[in-house]
Amino acid sequence: MNKSRIILLCILSVLAFMNISAKNRGFAIFIDPISYKKVRPEIEQYAQSIEKQGLKTFIIEDKWGIPDSIRACILQLYTQKNYPIEGAVFIGDIPIPMIRDAQHMTTAFKVNQNLKNFERTAVPSDRFYDDLNLKFTFIQQDKKKPNLFYYSLNADSPQRLEPVIYSGRIKPGDTPTTSKYERLKAYLQKVVRLKEEQNKVDQLLYFSGQGYNSESQLARIDEKESYYEYFPWLKQQRNGIQHIDHLRDNFIKYRMMAEIQRNDLDIAILHHHGAPGKEYLNRYPVPRNAKDNLESAKIFFRSKIRSAVDRKTPADTAIAYYVREYDVPKDWFDDIFTKASIDSDSIRDYQLDLHIEDFDTYKPNARVVLLDACFNGAFNNDRYIAGEYIFNSGNTVVAIANSVNVLQDKWTDRNLGLLGLGMRIGNMTKYNPYLESHTIGDPTYSFSSHDASIDINKVLTEKNTGYWKKQLKNQYPAMQLMAIQQIAQNGNCSDFLLNTFKTNPNYIVRLGCMMELSRYDDDNFVSCLESATEDSYELIQRLGCILVGKNGDPRLIPAVIRSLIRNNNGKRVEFQLKSAMGMFETEPLLDEFEKQFAECSIYLNKAEKKAYFESFIRNAAGRWDENVQVLSNRDSKPKDVLFCIRSIRNNPIHAELPFLIDFFKNCNNEEYQLLLAEAFGWFELSYKSPELLQELLKISQDNKYSEKVRNEALKSVNRITHRKHE
Asked: Which residues make Cβ contacts (< 8 Å) with residue 154, sequence separation at least 6?
């Protein structure tokens, strides 16, 4: 079917189901034919609830079952003269785009795409639908899961996410007792009911799970301070912000579940590790006395021995090994394979985490849940954690979650404060987009505004730079932050961003300035990073250290060393500082350290500390030397070469860029060149990116390289040219 025919059918379908009431803006509801037949009255009631918010609704029955057709329809609805849509929702079994060749648009998804498992090596992403500037090439439809469609991001496409509309997914799955259509019907009824609430944001909970952000207490302390900036009206006697740490209880899930079941809870932000069907919350209980230590050791041995037996090691052999290596009594293991022992350990292990099965009795009521975790939003599965939050009898309406793995160190809650001013939830993802991040649930849901004088949803649809400039002095830091984003998108404003970064008292506004300045390859960005490493806000320090490593300008070395010899860095800041040091040369770091440490007077054991820091610098800065050695050695195994090239994607070793370019030109190996051309795109923030850009332009136009290699080079060119260069 040709494209014009698809668009014509789309228009006819829209006209058939459109509401006739007049509104200024539109919203599209896409639903598969079976779901529409099953829940038509509920869909119409849902549409009416959106109309009450001031949006004209278009109900589109997806009779194509093809992402390209839906995208063409969205484009028509977005560009139409009357009632252009500001958002869309995909209900039921709407086709799922699975995106390949766009790993740089994710925070952490870095896999070998040569693997045969297509589903495992692609990102389920509705950026295909809401970022209409992106260009894709269709690859194939999944044979086992026909609702999955694989696409490759084109080389001539924009290489940065900037959605033009917001979107949401409402995709239930069957349970052993309830069909997905029954669950969908109940959810739509719940949304319509809860939209009638006059509910302001006045209760927020955040949770920190085991192993997340290095379990930095400073990170969690400063996080609470940022919530007071987002929601300044919560600075009152009634406790409006609560925090739960996984160390509070041996089995923290029950405390967390109880809090999220509070019907007065508005927003829950959950930082932890995850899987499609699990939230990882606890580790084994921390021993508090000798008895606990003894039991902890026995748990360890039982786990190790059972795992060894599962790998076909004889039980006697495994037991003998641990008795000998750890010098423990053999009778510790007498009951290791008894049913009582196995059942007891299984029950304990199950209680450490939250599972999909827990939702049989768990009824979350927090209206919005932000799952800062891997895979909890993997809607390519029939059932997934984010879906379970909304498809039950509790009052949760929306979960923001990730469809694949996600980086721990990212600005998860950017623009969260605007929810308190009535912003529709879909805009959270639109204005903080990642390929993997999705609004699961109704994207038009909003809280009642704490300030009726601000129509945030209206002003977000208008390109009014003058209005946003006035908001730089708004009483709400959340409005100042959005003003920074809007102004930065509409002109060159590097000086303005740096000045605001250095003078604004609000953490979230300064953080916004730093992130927007990363679009500039200029002295102001370097100056900002010099200050960021000493900022009073932990997240600015932490993300600043990451950007220092990605930029690599030698002028940043004094700031790196000042941060290093500071006595009390946050744990996660220290982690990222060490990673950043790996992007600099060893000797300049050591020279600057000698200079600064000579004037340092805070350490009592200065000689010992000096030796420690020198060792730290050598280990950190020399971390990637082996990569260069592997690439330099013609006898290196291909798998080792490929591994080294892939590792460069997250670790742009700036000083070695000339060597890497020479290796690319002289290796005469298409596979190496293809991967390295991709890895060069990760140098987009590098101070050496201008010279790299010139080389990539030549490569992209040189016919001695294969078309695949030229296209990958062009993709990296488009990544780098998105920045504003001096």
From this structure: 135, 136, 137
